[in-house]
Structure formats: structure tokens, C-alpha cells
Specification:
By secondary structure, the protein is an alpha+beta fold. It folds into 2 domains: 344 residues, no CATH class; 70 residues, no CATH class. A hairpin with a 2-residue loop joins strand 20 and strand 21. Helix 3 packs across helix 14. The longest helix has 26 residues. It is globular and about 65 Å long. The mean pLDDT is 92.
């Protein structure tokens, strides 16, 4: 039995003990989450009754892999901007391509980013790379504090030491550092940019938590929408609030569906009148086609050995779907035919997050549905990716029906600021083999160490 397995079993026995099985502590925990706005869509952000544990050794592996991979991603961004044929493989909109050519005013390509990892005792695989993702860092700080002092966790800490992460302070440091390099001379006034959907009646709680944390740390901050922004006399404002830094929680492709290049934010960005974090250039690193380039040895042959090794070990083979030939395990293959013949070990994913297009795992569909999906992927921007077995673990789930043990898929999200892993969150979703389920949420993430 591994250290991690032993820790999980010990924690579950604590939950079953007489001192905790009445779940009064769980009711209190749920009420505190509601009171402290730790909610997603009106539900508590964490319906689970244990944290996700990660060992110090696992964390070291994650940190080493993350550093090498993000270095490769930054390098790829520079290479792509200097190589039009490679840039075309990113499948950017013309306006996205134009914005990517604008210097953001600071040297780091990625101020803050997050990887989506599958971590088991013996392996690590990267499924996604995201920029500007606040939910994990905003919620995990609060959830960690609540769980750390919960009765079962206090008892568990008598046996094993748990270390919390703290992400918001590192996010603020990264924003301030980018603004200083941009040329800022004062403590920046931060506009947290969000979209407000027509049916949306309130601001998502993670944005409110971020704004409150920024203000508490001494940084003037407001949540703003694109409609509120005005650019006059070299200043970007939202009504009377002058903005030095835009913390962008809006995808550029979504922005461009609603606004053109004359929008005040884009004019201020082109004029270097506002520091945007992350820059519009960073959107390239959010496209799934990035993994197409990274897993193509002909593109990365000049990359440092450590980066190429990390790519081979941790990133699954990925290709932008098209009527073309490519390589797989050093063999030349016809890509559509390869996809057609290898349904059981491939997944089709839209090139970028979409509310209308969703990933389709081949092993969860039949041949006729897979054929239809392939035809769609040949018309729309899709990537095909080799299958990665998800990490699964049992978690106690709390609902009005009481406590139930459920097998959950566990996605570990290291949060990286200025190239360094500074915090970590975990997203749990039902391991249902394709069956729809609403059971999902965050779990506080603790480093597990011996006493």
C-alpha cells in the first residue's frame, strides 16, 4: 500500500468514527462555504468531504514537468510568431493573428497559466493548458482554510502533516511585476474583465472573491465588462475608475464574436495605454493545436533536450485534424484514415473551448457516431489526441441524502505565475463513462507529509 492510499484509508476511517459520522461538522462546513461565497452556479464549490492529497514527491515531479513544459510552450510561441507556416497550423482567426503580433509591454509570454494533469503514483500526463483561469486559485485559498480547521482534518493532522497552498498572493505579485515591466510607476488599479451573459443576473462568485482579495491587499480593483470600457485621452476607464491593468477573464475568440478591433480595450492595448494580463498573444498557448506543434518532432528538434524529454513523457500525441498525412511513432500515416481505424485510443476535441462543441472520446462511442464526428472535425477546427487514462479515486460526497462514497475523476491543476508553480487546485468530476452527471466541483489540495 502506498503512502497516499494509506492516508486516504485513514481519513475515511476518521469520517466513519463515532465522533464525526453524524455529519454535524459537514453541515457547518457547507454553511460556511455558502456564507463565504465559495459557490459555483449557486451550489457549494466543494460537495466532497475530504481534500485531495498530493505527496511532496509527486509535487516535485509536477513542478519539474511544469517548468520544462511551460518553457517549451513559451519557446513555441516565439517560434510560431517568426514562422508563418507554423502560425497557420494554430488555426487563429485573422484578428487573433493580428493581436498576437502586438508586443504586450512585458517579456514573459505567460504571466499566469494552468495545466490540466492526470497524476497517478507512477505517471503524469498533460491534457490541457489554460491561461486566465481564476476559479481554482480563488476558491482553493478559501476551501483550504475551511477544511484545514474542520474536525476530521484536525484529527488527521495529528497523524500526518498537511501543507496548504496560497495562490492569490502569487497572482497579485505576477500582475504587479508585469505592470512594473510595462512601465507602471504606481500600485496598479486593476480591472477584472468579465462577460455578462444576457440571462446573467449576478457576477460569478470567483470574480467577487478575486476582487475582494485584491482590494484587501491594497490594490484598487473593480469587476468590469467590455460594455463599460471607454478609452479617451490615453486612459482606459470604466465610468470613473481609471484602469492600469486589465486582468482578462475573457477569451479573445468570444470577444471577437461580439466586438471589432475598434473596441476601446483593443485600441488602448495597441497604444500601450493599458497592461493586459495575460496578453492577447497568450491566446496561442490556449489553443489545443499547440500540442500538435509540440508533439511534432520536426518542429521541436532544436528545442533543449530537457524540454523535448518532458514533451515526450507528458504530452499525448496530438494533431490538428485535416486531409493530410502525418507521423505517428515515426511512421507516416494518412490522418483521417488513422483516426477512423483507431477509435478506441483517440479523442476528438475542438481546437478551443466551446459551449457548442465538446470532446468526443472514441472509446465511448460507436463506429457510425465516430465517423460522423470525423466528418465534422474535418470541417471545423478540431484536434485528435491519443487517449490518456484518467486518474480516479474514491471521495466521500455530501448531499441532503447524507454521505456516499463515489469514484471520481481527479484533474490536478498546478497554477504557474511567471514560470513558477506556486499553487495547486483539484477538479473532481463523476467517473461515469460518458453518462451525463452534474456531480463535479473543486476539492482543496494539500501536500501530504510525514510528521
Amino acid at each position: 500500500m502506498t503512502t497516499l492510499e494509506e492516508a486516504v484509508q485513514r481519513y475515511h476511517r476518521i469520517l466513519e468514527s463515532d465522533a464525526h459520522k453524524d455529519l454535524a461538522w459537514a453541515n457547518e462546513l457547507r454553511d460556511r462555504m455558502l456564507n463565504e461565497k465559495l459557490t459555483i452556479g449557486g451550489r457549494v464549490a466543494c460537495p466532497f468531504l475530504r481534500p485531495n492529497f498530493i505527496t511532496r514527491r509527486q509535487l516535485q515531479t509536477v513542478a519539474k514537468a511544469t517548468q520544462a513544459l511551460l518553457s517549451a510552450i513559451e519557446r513555441m510561441g516565439r517560434v510560431v510568431l517568426e514562422n508563418p507556416p507554423l502560425l497557420s497550423r494554430m488555426d487563429l482567426l485573422p484578428a487573433e493573428r493580428m493581436l498576437a503580433t502586438i508586443e504586450p509591454g512585458y517579456s514573459a509570454g505567460l504571466i499566469n497559466s494552468m495545466l490540466d494533469l492526470q497524476v497517478t503514483n507512477g505517471s503524469l500526463h498533460v491534457l490541457e493548458h489554460n491561461v486566465n483561469t481564476p476559479a481554482g486559485v480563488a476558491f482553493d485559498d478559501g476551501l483550504a482554510s475551511l477544511f484545514y480547521d474542520a474536525a476530521p482534518v484536525r484529527e488527521f493532522r495529528k497523524w500526518r502533516r498537511l501543507t496548504k497552498f496560497g495562490g492569490i498572493k502569487h497572482l497579485l505579485s505576477a500582475l504587479a511585476a508585469a505592470y512594473k515591466e510595462f512601465g507602471g510607476k504606481r500600485r496598479p488599479r486593476i480591472g477584472i474583465l468579465e462577460f455578462r451573459q444576457p440571462f446573467q443576473t449576478s457576477t460569478p462568485s470567483e470574480y467577487l472573491l478575486l476582487c475582494e482579495a485584491f482590494v484587501k491587499a491594497g490594490f484598487p480593483a473593480q469587476i468590469v465588462t467590455p460594455e463599460q470600457l471607454d478609452y479617451r485621452n490615453g486612459k482606459l476607464r470604466a465610468e470613473n475608475f481609471e484602469i492600469d491593468v486589465i486582468y482578462r477573464l475573457v477569451r479573445i475568440h468570444e470577444f471577437l464574436l461580439r466586438y471589432d478591433l475598434s473596441h476601446p480595450l483593443l485600441r488602448a492595448y495597441r497604444d500601450r495605454a493599458v497592461c493586459v494580463v495575460s496578453s492577447f498573444r497568450s491566446e496561442m498557448a490556449h489553443k489545443r493545436s499547440l500540442f500538435d506543434l509540440l508533439t511534432d518532432d520536426s518542429v521541436t528538434s532544436s528545442f533543449p533536450a530537457a524540454e523535448r524529454k518532458a514533451i515526450r513523457e507528458y504530452i499525448p500525441w496530438t494533431r490538428l485534424v485535416g486531409m493530410t498525412k502525418t507521423t505517428y511513432n515515426d511512421q507516416t500515416v494518412d490522418l483521417p484514415e488513422f483516426i477512423r481505424r483507431n477509435r478506441e485510443r483517440l479523442v476528438l476535441k475542438p481546437n478551443q473551448d466551446s459551449s457548442e462543441l465538446h470532446p468526443l472520446p472514441g472509446w465511448e462511442t460507436d463506429e457510425s457516431s465516430w465517423e460522423r464526428a470525423l466528418h465534422r472535425a474535418l470541417r471545423l477546427p478540431y484536434v485528435v489526441q491519443e487517449r490518456v487514462e484518467p486518474a480516479r479515486a474514491l471521495f466521500p460526497v455530501y448531499s441532503f441524502a447524507g454521505l456516499q462514497m463515489k469514484e471520481m475523476r481527479v484533474d490536478v491543476h498546478p497554477h504557474v505565475y511567471m514560470g513558477r508553480l506556486q499553487s495547486c487546485s483539484s477538479w473532481l468530476s463523476a467517473a461515469t463513462n460518458g453518462t451525463f452527471s452534474t456531480l463535479a466541483g473543486l476539492a482543496p489540495t494539500f501536500i501530504l507529509e510525514a510528521r
